[in-house]
Write a structure and sequence with these properties.
The protein is mainly beta. It is built from no helices and 18 strands. Strands 10, 11, 12, 13, 15 and 16 form a 6-stranded antiparallel beta sheet that branches. A 5-stranded mixed beta sheet has the order 9-2-18-17-14, with no helix packed on it.
Length: 196
C-alpha cells in the first residue's frame, strides 16, 4: 500500500501578492502498514531519485517554514516496504508584476500608483484577470471584502477584466485587501493584496 501524503500551505489556497509575505507548508504523512522511514523536502521541482542522497528531513511537526515569494517545494516520503510518494507545491506568493497562473486564470497585480477617480485622489493597484484561451471558462464577477474598489473595463463573463483597488484614505501604513474572483465553473479564488 502506498504511503499517504498531503501538503497544505499555511495561507491555504489564498493567492498572495506581497513580496514580504512569509508562510509555511504543513506536511501530513502516514503509512499504517509498514511505517514511514524517510520524510524529506527540497526547494524546487525534484523527482524521486533526487531524494536518494539529497533533501532535508521533515521534522516531527511536519512544518516547512520560511516559505517565500515564488518558491516551489517537493515533498517525498518512503515506507519500510519501499513504496514512495512525492508531491510538488507552489507557494502561491507572488511579487508585484508577476503573473499567477492558477487553473485557467492568469492573475496579476500592478505596482501602486496615484490617481484621481470620481473626484477623489488616492493610491491604487490594478488587479487584472485573464482567462486562458480556449478553456471555455469565463469570469463571473468580483467581491471585495475591505476598503473601496472601482470596477474598470469589467464585463461580466469577460475574458480579461481589471478591478482598481484603492488604499484606504489617510493611512500612512500598510493596507490589506482581500478580493474574491468567481468563474463560470463555480470556483472562487481568494486574492490577498498589500499596499505599503
Amino acid at each position: 500500500e502506498m504511503p499517504s501524503l498531503s501538503v497544505i500551505r499555511g495561507h491555504g489556497d489564498t493567492i498572495i501578492f506581497d513580496s514580504s509575505y512569509v508562510s509555511s507548508i504543513k506536511v501530513n504523512y502516514s503509512d499504517n502498514l509498514s511505517g514511514i522511514v524517510v520524510a524529506k523536502y527540497a526547494r524546487g521541482i525534484k523527482d524521486k531519485t533526487y531524494f536518494a542522497s539529497n533533501g532535508k528531513s521533515i521534522s516531527n511537526n511536519g512544518i516547512i517554514s520560511n516559505v517565500k515569494v515564488n518558491e516551489e517545494y517537493t515533498v517525498y516520503v518512503k515506507d519500510s516496504a519501499g513504496n514512495e510518494e512525492i508531491i510538488s507545491i507552489h507557494s502561491n506568493i507572488f511579487d508585484d508584476g508577476q503573473t499567477a497562473k492558477i487553473d485557467n486564470l492568469e492573475i496579476s497585480v500592478s505596482n501602486t500608483y496615484w490617481s484621481i477617480i470620481n473626484w477623489l485622489p488616492g493610491h491604487y493597484r490594478d488587479l487584472t484577470t485573464k482567462v486562458k484561451s480556449g478553456s471555455g471558462v469565463t469570469i463571473n464577477g468580483y467581491a471585495h471584502s475591505s476598503g473601496r474598489s472601482y470596477l474598470s473595463s469589467l464585463n461580466i463573463n469577460s475574458i480579461t477584466s481589471t478591478i482598481k483597488i484603492e488604499k484606504e484614505l489617510y493611512r500612512n501604513y500598510a493596507s490589506y485587501h482581500t478580493v474574491f474572483i468567481s468563474d463560470s465553473e463555480g470556483k472562487i479564488y481568494k486574492i490577498w493584496i498589500r499596499f505599503f
